Amino acid sequence: MRLATKLSVLALSTAGALAHLHEQERLGIELDELVRLQAEGGVLGNGVGEDIKKPSRWLEKYGPQYDQPFSGPLSFSHLPYHTCLEQEALDYDIAIIGMPFDTGVTYRNGARFGPYAIRSGSRRQRASREGYSMAWGLNPYESGLKIIDCGDVPVSPFDNALAVDQLEVAYNTLVGRKPTHITGTQPLGKDGVEHPRIVSLGGDHTIVLPILRSLYKTYGPISVIHFDAHLDTWPAYAGTTSPQSRVTHGTFFYLAQEEGLMSNTSIHAGIRCKMNGIEDLENDASVGFKLVSADDIDDLGIPEVIKRIRERVGDSPVYLSLDIDVIDPGLAPATGTPEAGGWTTREVKRIIRGLAGLNFVGADVVEVSPAYDHAEITGIAAADIVHDFLSMMMAPVAPEGGYPYASERQITDEL
Ligand SMILES: [Mn+2]
Question: Helices 377-394 and 114-121 meet at what angle, rounded to 10?
């Protein structure tokens, strides 16, 4: 055996080299012989000893076939994947559902691949490992609520009216199930019972209209916290020629207000789009929104932004909708209508953290359109925000000061 090969075997890692020495000593053989035997059938590991020439079995030698961050079938954070819409006996506390609808956009389409991109961006989160967040001081996957990935709603890519109805029926189906545990929604619902909460992966922003229609049936009118570069409260676009063509990713809140689905206590965060004029803001107020602009974060600071959002929605049932274009396109380029000058991912995450303890009945991330992405940065950002949503739904109050235990760590260091 050539020396270089021997050295490369020993250099695999410190642990590997120690394992070699241990095995060599235990078996009383020279290194060359050890390497040869290893090549023939595996002599390292949990003491195969006299069985070294027999085929070894994975389970007895290495244990379960676990998924690594880069392996396994694609579900959000490697969570159990179920076709929930058809499995009527299935229960959960939080369901993650993909809504691959993107035929309501005004500019770039492609958000039908958003659920795929967000799941792909979530692969380094796992329920049992890499789920704990220092910022939240908890692991949402191990906090006592059952979270599953419910797959995607089969939506028509040919008929928007049909697709919007499919999305509403899917949401009714998921939110109508009895949750596995207590979710805290009982006082909020019209029927006085607990409901699971749904985290939707868009899809373009139009999906929020069928979601609000469904939530209205369960909770009555609700407040919306809307992270977005755009208002999405426009009555219609020029050239509209049919009732259906009013249903778009920029008009759905106007329609929701027409239908009485929202209370008059909603708020935008991160607004910076170009408008037709001041009349757009007057219309926006009539739809029931106040707003925090993109620039407000510099002038007010994050704590004041959080305070304004919390005060606006109060104790009402709240739905959180986050258009990924609220983040600057430099940090999240893969979206349908990018706007320069947005918030950073870190700023958005910190604001979300400040919203824990509100009466959330559901949330979404929309407008991720991965054909415009680079190195998956938008999908990774969206997946990280979903992790924050899960923590936000579980934490009873917003964590103080950003990092729980940070002061204790400092004291330990000084000792
Ligand atoms: Mn939007």
Answer: 80
Determine phi and psi for 354, rounding to 5 degrees.
-75, -5
Distance 293 CA to ligand 1 centre (A): 14
CA of 105 to the centre of ligand 1 (A): 10
Q: How far is the CA of 233 from the centre of ligand 1 (A)?
A: 9
- Cα 303 to middle of ligand 1, angstroms: 24
Ligand 1 centroid to residue 145 C-alpha, Å: 30
Distance CA 352, CA 254 (A): 25
Phi, psi values for residue 284, rounded to 5°: -60, -45
pLDDT tens digits, one per residue of 273-307? 999 999 999 999 999 999 999 999 999 999 999 99
Q: What is the mean pLDDT of residues 230-249?
A: 94
Question: What is the whole-number distance in angstroms between the Cα of residue 366 and the centre of ligand 1?
Answer: 8
Q: What is the pTM (predicted TM-score) of this model? A: 0.86
* Environment class of 191 (CB within 10 Å of its CB; exposed 0-12, middle 13-18, buried 19+): exposed
What pLDDT was estimated at residue 400?
78
What is the Å distance from ligand 1's center to 329 Cα?
14
**In the structure, what pLDDT confidence band is assigned to residue 17 with cuts at 50, 70 and 90?**
very low
Is the alpha carbon torsion for 158, 162, 165, 169 positive or negative? negative
- What the block records as the tokens of 273 is 């789009």
